[in-house]
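tool_call: predict_structure(chain=1)
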Amino acid sequence: MSTQSFDPWSSGTRAYRVTLVTGMAATGIGVVLVILAAVMEPADGAGSLRSFGLFCLGAGILSHLIAIGLRRRQAAQILSRRATEED
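tool_result:
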């Protein structure tokens, strides 16, 4: 029987970890940009900053969803490998 853990970070693939960290970074940058745009004067370009911040938030969410899909696929492979080893 395989002893591979279900801990996402230690047993996750490199693609999963890169996608997850990219999503967290994009989300964090998006939050900061939207907050800065809310504090700025409208004449200082707050609209474009807010738009870019919202784009970063969307990219971060999309990246997280991709990471979830990558991890789900890997977990299914681990489970099928364990089932095969038990037979």
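agent: The mean pLDDT is 88. Proceeding to next step.
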